[in-house]
Amino acid sequence: MTAGSISASSSRGGPRTDTHRAKPALSAPSPPEPQTADAVLMIRPARFAANAETAGTNRFQAARGGRDVAAHAAREFDGLAVALAAAGVRVHAFAGSRLEALPDEVFPNNWVSFHADGTAVLYPLLAPSRRRERRPELLRELEREHGYRLTRVVDLTHLEQRAQFLEGTGSFVLDRVRRVAYACRSPRTHDAALAEFGRELGYETHAFDATDRDGHAIYHTNVLLSIGTRFAVLCARALRDTEERRRLVDGLAASREVIDLSFEQLHAFAGNLLELRAGGSPVIALSATALASLRGAQRRALEAHGELVVADVATIEHVGGGSVRCMLAEVALPRVAS
């Protein structure tokens, strides 16, 4: 496991359509990416806490936590990082900011994503308190210190001025091989921002509406959907429109086994998991809460697709409203030839 002792710095940076799929306007088709990465970027939370500013759009935030919540979150972070490294995943863990309160910095996948062609993308975030989490200097750290090749940075943060938000691989889930970005609409995920991502990265976009068991819009797609190399985990019943549900399930099932979740499993973060590579072999990272919610047949189906790497992140889940997948920004950048 690598570590960076980087001081935190601040980088402050449409109308809904009826189109179900939008193809990007490209002069030539973009090549597919590998579905999984063998490395992740993680931010060790320095001042983790409940964020009242995000609670209105994230109904998975179920508790405010006590006096020791930051210490509990730091231990949970360490447990996940160690488990991933022990499984063979390259972990680039950076220290969080002690200079200012960034309660959600443990979720870096919302502000950055990395791609196999050498692209990094910076994203527009709904909550002003979260915009200070962006640390572009870490991109250069990955390049200088860890041997990755970064060829361009696509900065979408200007969309915040238009109130058009797209919170990275929280807002959408990528089928990197087929180059499709799946996204459920919410206050944090706007059609116009999704379309701009599609144009810049050469992805088709597939937007839909999804709600939790109480009928509220689900804030991030990555709590109801995860796409691996040969499987997809989905809470299909969250899509109340039967035609949207059929199209989504059919699109996924064309190339993958679909493991369907109940609403109870959705709320236990069973959809918030991530397949990674470790020495060429697949591993699937998920929380202890998520694993405990799975039925025997579901667990066996998941285990058929990779080694399960499990960590207890209950404090981060209950107070922060995100789980294991939210804590991981896949580093899919190419490596510099040695």
Can you put this structure into words, describing what you see?
- With 338 residues, the protein is an alpha/beta fold.
- It has a single domain, classed as L-arginine/glycine Amidinotransferase, Chain A (5-stranded Propeller).
- The chain has helices at 52-55, 69-87, 128-131, 137-146, 168-171, 191-201, 242-253, 263-267, 288-293, 296-303, 314-320; strands at residues 2-4, 21-22, 39-44, 90-95, 112-114, 119-122, 152-155, 172-175, 180-184, 204-208, 225-227, 231-234, 257-260, 274-278, 281-287, 307-311, 329-330.
- It has a four-stranded mixed beta sheet with strand order 1-4-3-17, sandwiched between helices.
- Strand 8 and strand 9 (180-184) form a beta hairpin.
- Helix 2 packs across helix 11.
- It is globular, with a radius of gyration of 18 Å.
- The two termini are 20 Å apart.
- 49% of the residues are buried.
- The model is unreliable at 2-28 (pLDDT under 50).
In the CATH scheme, what's the topology name? L-arginine/glycine Amidinotransferase, Chain A
Radius of gyration: 18 Å
Mean pLDDT: 89
Main-sheet strand order equals 1-4-3-17
Q: Report the top-level CATH class.
A: Alpha Beta
Structural class: alpha/beta
Q: Note the run of SSEs as H and E.
A: EEEHHEEEHHEHEEHEEEHEHEEHHEHE
Helix tally equals 11
Q: What is the approximate shape?
A: globular
In the CATH classification, which architecture applies? 5-stranded Propeller
Unreliable spans: 2-28
CATH superfamily: L-arginine/glycine Amidinotransferase, Chain A
Helix percentage: 25-40%
Question: How large a portion of the residues is in β-strands, by DSSP E?
Answer: 15-25%
